[in-house]
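Can you give me the bound-state structure? Components:
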Amino acid sequence: MQATSYALTLPVMVPLLLAVVIYAVGQRSWQLRNGLSVAAALSSFLLVVQHYRTIMADVTLVAEFPELLPPLGVSFRMDHLGFLVAAVVSFVWLLVTIYSTAYMVKEHAKNRYYPFSVLTLAGAMGVVLSGDLFTFFLFFEMMSLSAYVLVIHEETAAAMRAGYRYLILTIIGGLALLFSIIAVFHQAGGVTFTPGGLPLEADGLAFFAYLGFLIGFGIKAGMVPLHVWLPEAHPVAPSPASALLSGLMLKIGAFGLIRVVFQVFGLEMMEATKWNDLLILLAAITIFLGSAVAITQDDIKRRLAYSSVGQMGYILLGIGLLQERALIGAIFHIFAHAFMKSSLFLAAGAIIYNTGKRKVSDWVGMGRSMLITMSVFTVAALSMVGVPPLVGFVSKWELALGALDAGSVAFVILLLLSSLMNFIYYFPLIQNAFFGEGLAHTAQAQPKRENVPLAMLVPMVVLAAVILIIDLLPYNIALELAERAAHSLFLTVK
Amino acid sequence: MYSLDLLLLLPILLPLFGAGLVFLSRARKRVQDALVVGTVLLTFAGTAAIYLLNPEHRLQLVFFHLVDYGLSFRPTNLGILFALLSAGLWALITIYAISYMRHSHSQTRFSSFLLVSLSGCLGVFLAGDYFTLFLFFEIMTFAAYPLVIHDEDDEAMRAGDSYLYMGVAGGLVLLLGILMLVWSTGTADIVPALDMLQGGAISPYVVALVFLIGFGVKAGLVPLHVWIPHTYPVAPAPATALLSGVMGKTGFYGILSVLTVTLSSPLPSKSIAAIPMNIGFALIWVALLTILCGAVMALLQKNVKRLLAYSSISQMGYVMLAVGCAAYLGAKGGLPYTAAVFHAFNHAVFKAGLFLMMGSVYMRTQSLDLGKLGGMAKVLPFTALTTLVATLAVIGVPGLSGFGSKKLVQYGIEKAAAYHGEQVLTWIAPLFILGSALTAAYLIKLYYGVFLGKYRGQPVSGAKEGVTIPAVLGLVAASIVAVGLFPERMMGLMSRSAAGTVVNFGVMTEQLATVKLWTVSSYTAVAVPVAIGVLIFFAARHFKFGAGTVPWWLSVEALIYRPVTQGFLRFCCRYVTRVEGGICDLYDRSGSVSHSVLRRVRKLDDMLDEGYEASQRTTTLVVEQARGLEHGIEEAYARVGHQVATLPTGAASVEGEITAVYTRVGQAAVDTTRRLRNEAASDNHATEQQPEVWNPQNVTLGSLVVAAVMFVVLVVLYAVGIRVLR
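Here's the bound-state model for the whole set.
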């Protein structure tokens, strides 16, 4: 069922306009600037969740502006998938923005950081709520380009280098997307996301369009071998920005892939052509490579970045398997990983903020001095490993069952092996932080007190609490939405 | 029944709640101790209530929408029995731990995690499906980690790694098994599922293998036992007692559930019935290997707790042997089933007790080295007595708990060997006796080394035990004796736990009725291995056999685990990182390649530029030269023009000369004429004067030059004209 609601544009337009206001205000009052940044994310979140009842009644909201930017026009759309991802993105953005008001105090160029952060939010919301490929592309580029400013915020040589790499790949990805969109438009005569897919023919052009989407979204999602910008860009950005990049922006790539696979090409066509095999193969490589390389990294943020690569592989695998349960796992993992990786980056950020220690091996005894931060880190890390009843377990469970549905035990073993590898690279951190303090050869001076502002602690604790509790609630909203989203994406076929 | 259902949550939530309170009351030691003891006692009471209120009834409680399955608690008789045993032992050990850990560091941590792992352990036994079981299994594994590494020295941390990595890997394998089961049957419930597994995409053998590995790590099946000899010696005595006595039993519980419930069928056809039989057959041999390896290794140990760790492995082998026989016999496996449960029960009590007793020795001596200990019977007479009881119970002396269960295991083997007449199975009996003899030998070595002989170590410290520790040890010993005196009653109790399994109750009752424990033959069946054991002990002492160590390279760890894990990590670190580096390199190189391409292009551009410039220069040169030529030509023209311009003057002068010549000639002629006329007139002049004609002498040199020049100019003009016209 569809209904028109022009309120859909608000979660996008409010931050978009506020970004300008924040820039103007920021010259005069830092309080107002920070407050407005938080307000932008908060209003975005509230404007999304107000549609909760409508969405749960299985109504798809649309808003079309055909007269804008003819001939394609701009359109917005909110279904289960869009609602879930939009809610996750705006909620985490809200928490991260609150966190950054305290974290960024030590940084320079704050007047540049906040407007661009809000602008990136507007772009991300626009992508998630877009109703056709063209609108998608518009906001996608806006998000990608404004995120560049977040990446190079520190403006060190390494940051500029990473930013350069990010920018080059972003532009290549954007061009690949543009090519594919044109190809789709040429073949199907339209680019609106359509349940069941657009009328495309499985010819060479369509395949190249698919490849273009794979490249464009793969770069954003950190799919091997297009991930190279990611381990460079995440460590150099300020921690809240890393949390946004790793926790949310990567998901936008995966989100786009879901839209394209199920609502542009369509399930039938993907099943008939077996083009998903390429995605599955790349996803498997991504999982293994990301997890394996993470083991060898000593810089905490690089380790987290490679871990993100591996985790994005889960989502891509869930999309590629073309099974309903696997897709539930993928969509749920978008939510789960957004929360887990954000809290990991925020916790790491709090430790860097307090002690300046970026090296994993320097964290010995950290758990005693920074109990809350390390507890958040531990919860999120165990969730990544897939310890029940934390959120990471649920996505792993659904993905594994989906892999079995697809008839492949090998992928289940890969998932579990990757869990073990997650454990291998997270556990020494936890172990060092909490245990073995008596060992003389590892003894290190750690700060006496957990000197972290409340504005940083609260977002982390909220994230960790969600990770810990949401599965134990009698009604798991995220899982329910993921199930409905996957169901509606599959339903259109029959 | 709803309110009664909630009772099931009590043993699980109470310890968690207690752990929170313990953490909060960390500033007040006495309150904390009271909280810990109160919590475990209440938990025990709750579990006992469950046991008493619903011995036959199944309680079900489903809530939490975790995945497709909520958490559910639907304990079987077996589960309730082991939950009760766990809660009871936990209570005893916790009381012991309060005294034992009095002077230790991080007591809050120890106590909290002691309670959390209790919750996990009881959750495993009370779980209604594999999903819930797995959840609590993981909680238990993680919560026990701080107990294992409590000392936090190098050795403890290494052992902790071994424990946790093996535990997590085992947990993941278990998860794989559960996923396979859920996918194949659509339910995670612990119900007969062999019919659905048979003929599915995943073979029941694979499922069984995966489950055996997953639970086998906890149970300590060879070759999955490697973490046990590392972990048990370094953990504090109460933690070891819990690990060995209680937590290890979760592995046994899982394997027994899988083999006798899940991999069974209500109405087995012949092809289906063969599956659990084959699995049981395989398990029997693995169990025998476990018994013998554990016993031989125990005999070789010098550290008391390491010896007991290997003894645990070996004793769990007995339990698994009975489980294998039960699976092999299927519906007729009531007797080995009872034997397995009974022996697991007994092992929990006496092995936990032994670890506690050695703990009390350690409190006095701060040493666990058999080479240094000795003569403790004088210092700790009561501990010596309880240890004697527990040791004899392990050996299986009549009147103590091990006697009945070991005897039952032996009967089970006979039943299995007789069932299908498999010749191979008749080999078990002698190997079983060998195992028992080795058990007797290492236990004599233990007891002799610790309590008899002379004390050889440091002077004994004066730490007093207090009352609680002897009380706990006394309770353990008393229960061993009590069970040993009434084995038939215990057998009846144990056999009830077979409800809901494949076991046929009628057959089981018949089988158990034929068991004759108190006969001379069964005494001799104990005496013979003990006699051999004594011989082995003395032989080993004489040949210093026990003093030797097994070379490291011969252990499973060195042969399999180290190479595999290190190889894998090296693979990750070296090759995958290299691949990753290669990809990054590729990008960088593609950047540099495109740079170099661009540089080439620029060079080409430069070259073109240069070419243009050069051509321009050439052109300029050509033009200049052309201009020069032109200039030359112009000059030539000019000169020619000049020449031409001078020509008329020359010509005029020539003409003037000519005119002058003519004039002169004319003048001369006129003069001549006039003269001639004058001559004629004057006298007809005779001498006629010659008329003056052209005279070369009259041509001047100048006129000649002019003529030549004119000629040259004409020639040149002609030539140029022709050239131009061409």
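A couple of observations. The mean pLDDT of chain A is 91. Chain A touches chain B through 49 residues (CB under 8 Å).
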